[in-house]
Write a structure and sequence with these properties.
Layout: H1 5-12, E1 27-28, H2 33-42, E2 48-52, E3 58-63, H3 64-72, H4 76-80, E4 94-97, H5 102-112, H6 115-119, E5 121-125, E6 128-133, H7 135-155, H8 165-182, E7 185-193, H9 196-203, H10 205-222, E8 228-233, E9 236-244, H11 247-262, E10 265-267, E11 270-272, E12 276-283, H12 290-306, E13 312-314, H13 326-336, E14 342-351, E15 357-368, E16 372-374, H14 380-386, H15 389-409, E17 416-420, H16 423-426, H17 431-442, E18 449-454, H18 462-475, E19 478-484, E20 501-504, H19 506-509, H20 516-531, E21 535-538, H21 544-552, E22 557-559, H22 569-581, H23 583-592
Parallel strand pairs: 1-2, 4-5, 12-13, 15-17, 17-18, 18-19, 19-20, 20-21, 21-22
Antiparallel strand pairs: 2-3, 5-6, 7-9, 7-12, 8-9, 10-11, 14-15, 14-22, 15-16
This protein binds ligand C2E and magnesium ion (2 copies).
Length: 593
């Protein structure tokens, strides 16, 4: 549950002095001191009395303490009783209008001297006296707001106003205690946005921030008032759903969330597409311990991503848990190149027309000594954050070229190899030179190497980007845009770049037969590709339906589990010979559909 809006605004915006106002009957300038003394004596809680003129305009304040002290002295009563009260008031009292904020009045008092904190100040409306405020109340109010502010800073995410990790852990621990007593069940949803990095890369962090705020609002609107929606970090959100009856109710909620993501996201005047992957775990079914439940929901979320994103998955025994200890992973990653722990897997790409294998994408895997074979989802982000991706990326290009040449030497027909390039790698001033020297070193034909770039790379420093792309193009290597459509696709920029192919992101391909919007998008991209003479690859083709429809929509090539998962180099050879030997049959199937 988020902090109520009214509460947030009371933290961020200072209330006015009206909050502190007390209605104290004023004395008039000509009143005798004795009558004022009597008022103070009758009313021991009265800290001060304002003095006004006949029109009600404030003239000053009589401070109880100072005034009463005067009358304690011997003969004071005889001396002063009949004097006018105006002689005893503090003339330079602070007078503020009712609309003045507490923050502003605090500043005025600090500037004017702290004695006003003791005496208090007068509040007016249209210049006439309406009430008095007490320095003590003012101080209390300031302290309380400071504490609320500190609590807020420590427990809420500043960007989205959602509870942060600390408050989330507190709520989860409490919810688990309640559930234990009530013998009820709790569902935990681990939600991670798909391809969020592309938005940050292409549109800048300000744009990414606006998306996160919008996502926070949509998630909150999917939850009940009693549920907790928190932001863990970056684009990771988590939800605590208390008192769930069964797994089914979690399914319904996950569907609701994924559906809510579908309607267009208008961010800073632009329409973007966004999906999320959700993993769930359940107390007490999966675990009774908070940290364990989070790890399990996280593991299930990774499964959803692996399955093609835009989906939800429940934790199942046997799913691999990845400790969130990113530091150790980072240290291991530093050593991984030296220890030769990386390996390239290859996923075939086939032609829509005829089904022949036309190339493959090289996808990195990490043979971690303890964690086993890791896919990029577990380490690419860390590699990018630490800059290690530059060394890893160089290794990938070199290894892909080496493998390609080895296959040729063994007598295999050459196939084009695509490698993924990270933005950091692309921005290296030596990038073109590095590619050139790998080609020279390995003897690889430049036209057999394709570099997969992402839209985000083209958004900054365009002139330099055009220069680098032209240099690469002149080298003879091919250039593709990966995950096309997931960032903000400013189609007009494409004209300026010597691009050869677009790879439509798998989120548009998944279940395309039931998603008319996706079909429309793929058709539009296909028309665009045709007019610009670009080849089009559909990624993530898993089923015959998807295969048929992307073909009908005008894609030239396909890649996906329908044909093969990414395979080790030796398995790739086995797959290729088997696939090609049955290609005649495949061709018939493809043509028939
Ligand atoms: P990508 O370049 O879009 O690669 C396609 C991803 O989709 C691969 O995941 C692949 O295994 C998966 N995939 C392919 N077909 C299907 C399908 O039919 N269904 C489903 N559900 N998934 C399919 P992978 O290997 O886990 O790689 C993920 C991402 O990591 C890649 O996305 C790419 O952005 C990045 N990556 C991979 N290798 C490298 C690399 O060497 N360098 C860099 N910088 N990034 C890499
Ligand atoms: Mg790729
Ligand atoms: Mg891709």
């Amino acid at each position: 549950m988020t902090l109520p809006a009214a509460h947030i605004s009371s933290i961020n915006q200072s209330p006015t002095v009206k909050l502190l106002m007390r209605h104290v009957q004023p004395s008039h300038e000509h009143d005798a001191c004795l009558s004022v003394l009597e008022i103070f004596q009758k009313n021991p809680n009265l800290f001060a009395i304002p003095v006004v003129n006949s029109e009600g305009m404030p003239l000053g304040i009589v401070d109880r303490h100072l005034f009463v002290e005067t009358f304690i002295k011997p003969y004071a009563r005889e001396l002063y009783a009949k004097r006018k009260i105006s002689e005893f008031m503090v003339e330079k009292a602070i007078v503020v209008d009712m609309g003045t904020t507490i923050d502003d009045v605090s500043k005025i008092i600090i500037d004017a001297g702290m004695q006003h904190m003791v005496i208090g100040f007068i509040i007016t409306e249209n210049g006439l006296y309406v009430g008095l405020a007490n320095g003590h109340d003012l101080l209390n109010e300031i302290m309380q707001r400071k504490q609320e502010g500190l609590f807020y800073l420590a427990h809420f995410d500043q960007l989205t106003n959602l509870p942060n990790r600390l408050l989330f852990m507190d709520r989860l621990t409490r919810a688990l205690g309640d559930a234990h007593r009530k013998k009820s069940a709790i569902g935990l949803l681990f939600i991670d946005l798909d391809n969020f990095k592309n938005f940050n890369d292409s549109m800048g962090h300000g744009f990414g921030d606006q998306i996160l705020i919008a996502v926070a609002n949509r998630l909150t609107s999917c939850a009940r008032e009693v549920d907790t929606v928190a932001r863990l970090s970056g684009d990771e959100f988590i939800m605590i759903i208390e008192d769930i009856d069964n797994q089914n109710s979690l399914d319904i909620l996950c569907h609701r969330i994924l559906d809510s993501m579908k309607s267009p996201w208008e961010v800073m005047g632009r329409n973007v597409f966004l999906t999320a992957s959700i993993g769930t775990s359940v107390y007490p079914h999966d675990s009774t311990e908070a940290g364990d439940l989070i790890l399990k929901a996280d593991a299930a979320m990774y499964e959803a991503k692996r399955g093609g994103r835009n989906a939800h998955t429940h934790f199942k025994t046997g799913m691999r848990l990845y400790s969130m200890d990113k530091m150790t992973l980072e240290n291991d990653l530093r050593l991984a190149i030296e220890r030769n722990e990386f390996e390239l897997f290859y996923q075939p790409q086939v032609s829509v027309d005829g089904g022949g294998v036309i190339g493959m994408e090289a996808l990195i895997r990490w043979n971690h000594p303890e964690r086993g074979l890791l896919t990029p989802i577990h380490f690419i982000e860390i590699a990018e954050k630490t800059g290690l991706i530059i060394a890893i990326g160089k290794w990938v290009v070199k290894e892909a070229c080496r493998q390609h040449q080895e296959w040729i030497q063994c007598g295999y027909q050459p196939l084009r190899i695509s490698v993924n390039i990270s933005p950091l790698q692309f921005y290296q001033t030596s990038f073109c030179e590095d590619i050139r020297s790998v080609l020279a070193e390995t003897g690889m034909m430049p036209s057999s190497l394709e570099l997969e770039l992402t839209e985000g790379m083209f958004m900054h420093n365009i002139d330099n980007v055009v220069k680098v792309l032209n240099e690469l193009h002149d080298l003879g290597v091919l250039l593709a845009i990966d995950d096309f459509g997931t960032g903000y696709s400013n189609l007009s920029y494409l004209k300026r770049f010597p691009i050869d192919r677009l790879k439509i992101d798998q989120s548009f391909v998944r279940g395309i037969e039931n998603e008319s919007t996706n079909m429309e998008i793929v058709r539009t991209i296909s028309n665009l590709a045709k007019t610009m003479s670009l080849e089009l690859v559909a990624e993530g083709v898993e089923t015959a339906d998807e295969m048929n429809i992307v073909g009908m929509c005008g894609c030239d090539f396909m890649q996906g589990y329908k044909f093969s998962k990414p395979l080790s180099s030796s398995d790739f050879l086995l797959w290729r010979s088997e696939y090609e030997s049955t290609l005649d049959v495949q061709t018939v199937i493809l043509k028939a559909s």
